[in-house]
Structure formats: C-alpha cells, structure tokens
Amino acid sequence: MRMQQTQLKEPARIPSDPIQRAWIALGRVSQAIREDVALALKNARLPDITWYTVLWELERAAKPTRPKDLAIPLFIMPYQLSRLVDRMEEEGLVQRIACPEDKRGHLLEPTPEGYEMRKRMWTVYAPAMEEAMKRIGDAEALQLAQLLNRLGGIDYPVPPKA
Amino acid sequence: MRMQQTQLKEPARIPSDPIQRAWIALGRVSQAIREDVALALKNARLPDITWYTVLWELERAAKPTRPKDLAIPLFIMPYQLSRLVDRMEEEGLVQRIACPEDKRGHLLEPTPEGYEMRKRMWTVYAPAMEEAMKRIGDAEALQLAQLLNRLGGIDYPVPPKA
DNA sequence: CTGAGTTTGTTGCATTCGCAACAATGCCTC
DNA sequence: GAGGCATTGTTGCGAATGCAACAAACTCAG
C-alpha cells in the first residue's frame, strides 16, 4: 500500500498563479482581438472570418479538396462544415464537385467569385489584424507565437496566412 | 498637399510574418485549450465555463451586483447576460433581487446552490486547466501572460482565478 | 413639474448551433 | 461476394445566438 497516491478526496490541484494568469490572459485577449477583426469585416459588409479561412485553405491546397481534409486543419466539426459549405455554395463562393474515388463525398473548390471574395476580404482582414496586433513588435510577436505553439504542442512552424 | 498620405487605393498593408504567426497561433491554441476544458466540464455533466465565470465574479464581488457591472468584466453583451441569468435562475444557481436605488434593474446574487456549484465546478476546472497548460512551465506562463497583456493593452496585473 | 434624452435590461424573430440519428459508400475478412 | 464494421457527410430538432426594437426608469435643464 502506497502513501501519497493521487486519490479522489484530496483537494484538487490548483494551477499555479502564473498558469492562471496565462490562462485568463489567453481567454480575454484572444476573444478581444478576434472580435476586433470580426467587427472590421462586418462593418465592411463582408462574410465572417471562418469563410475566409475556408476559402484560403482551399486556395492554398491548389486543388479540389475533400471536406474531411478541411475539417482537421480548420478545427471545425464535420456537421458545421457541411452547413457552412451549404451557405457558401448558396452565395456562389464554392462549389461541390463529384469525387471520382469516393462516391460518399465530393470535392470542394472555390468559384471565381470565391477567389475574388477571398482577395477582397484580405484587404480588410489584413489591416484589421495589423491594427489588433499593433501593441507588440515583431520580436515579441515571434516570441508569443513560439510560446503559444509550445503550449499547444505544435512543434512545426505554422505557415503564414497569405 | 502632403506626400505619403495613407490613401484608399494603395495596396493594403500586409502584417509581417511574425505578426501573422502570432495571430494564427493565438487563434488555434486558445480555441484548442478552451475546448479541452469545456469538454472536461461537459464530461462531468457540469455547466459551461461561462456559468463558472458569472458565479465567480459574483462571489468575488462579495455583494449583490448589477448586471451592467458584470457585463463589462465578463466581456459579454447585456442581452446575452439577460438570458444567461434566466437560465441560471431556472437552475436555481443565482437569484435576481430587487434593487433599491434603481427600479429598472436588479441585483444578482448566487444562491447557496450557486456557491456549491462554483466550488464543484472548480474541482474539475482546475485540473483541466492544469492539464491544458501542462506543456509550459511557470516561467514561460508568466512571460506568456505578460506578452498577452501587452498585446491586449492591459497593463495592470490580472487577479488570479481562485 | 415637464418633457427630452439617456441608461438599463428584456424580448420577438430569424439565423445558427450542437447533438444524435441517419443514409450511403467504402473496406476488410471469411 | 456477403456480411459486418468503419468512414464520410447530411439532417431533424430543440436550444442558443445576434440584432434591432422595445419598455421602464432615471437624469436634468428649463
């Protein structure tokens, strides 16, 4: 019989003060700057950032892409993507085309209007991002990115956005 | 007439590579760890983090508090809070009590079950936070918090959570 | 006191979301 | 190639959300 075993009844381990501070700051700041950029897009009567991300991911793949291959890097659930694509298709920004090797699914591709829209969104997105991040410099940004990637267990460099 | 004036037609300024990396990492990592903790609470059949935050903010205030005074620090819109309180009241976790000085509003106070619930949630929340943040140490966490707070324009130290 | 303007909080409505159930196809073993 | 399991994607439905309109109470100048 061991002493010190981690058991149910012992008081829950409390995250250290620095961990708590990082946790809180992460929640608040990420929300704040995401909202800043979201607002900029809305004010310009442009679609949500998510739409941008989908369009950009498709464009970056440079070939028709399966929904399942989008869902992973975009961090969204398949049923969300399904309806997201519904709406984007309705707006004429992407199209579902038949998938030869797997008749369950299909391939996604931006329409010409889709490419156009992505570009147009970037002209608002980019300055808004710049504005939201203006309080830190490049050196700090790099440091921040590295810390975050370590925190998230990402050890490869994330490719830049555009 | 000035040269160099920032005008509409010039190509949109593109955020530097480090800024873009920080932006992306911030979005992904914050989402990922938030979902981790949210999942832990859901698996324990406990309410959402937002409920915790409300209960904790009320408890920290140590006196009945106006909705408007909660909305600011919680970063949520009044109409969201309104319905949030509806649901929490329905579950018997908070109560609206009459406000003597302003008959428009009311004061919010946790019920005994509310205090109880906050405590119970913390026993899941704390270890989940610890787990989600385990990849960085205290020194890094502090550095991260400082960078984030600078980014968010917050120059006072954020009080720890519990 | 009165009436204009503000603050505080709620609500109707259309949209969106999350979940679990589902259809359809693919894959793999016997 | 038949039957069982896994993968891929969609959908019905109840709950939640965002927005704009709203009611009620407060403030304050005249």
**Helix/strand order of chain A, N-terminal first:** HHHHEEHH
Could you report the average pLDDT of chain A, rounded to the nearest whole number? 90
Low-pLDDT sequence parts of chain A: none
Overall number of structural domains of chain A? 1
Q: CATH fold name of chain A, please?
A: Arc Repressor Mutant, subunit A
Largest interface: A-B, 56 and 56 residues
Architecture per CATH nomenclature, i.e. the level-2 architecture of chain A: Orthogonal Bundle
* Multimer state: homodimer
Main β sheet profile of chain A: 2 strands, antiparallel
Strand content of chain A: 5-15%
Question: What is the C-level CATH assignment of chain A?
Answer: Mainly Alpha
Q: Given the C-alpha coordinates, what overall shape of chain A results?
A: globular
**DSSP summary: helix tally of chain A:** 6
Give the tally of β-strands of chain A.
2
Supply the CATH superfamily name of chain A: Winged helix-like DNA-binding domain superfamily/Winged helix DNA-binding domain
Spatial order of the strands forming the largest sheet of chain A? 1-2
Topology:
The structure is a homodimer of 162-residue chains.
Chain A: H1 17-43, H2 49-61, H3 67-74, H4 78-90, E1 94-98, E2 106-110, H5 112-132, H6 138-152
Antiparallel strand pairs in A: 1-2
Helix pairs in contact in A: 1-5, 2-5
The structure holds a DNA duplex (30 and 30 nucleotides).
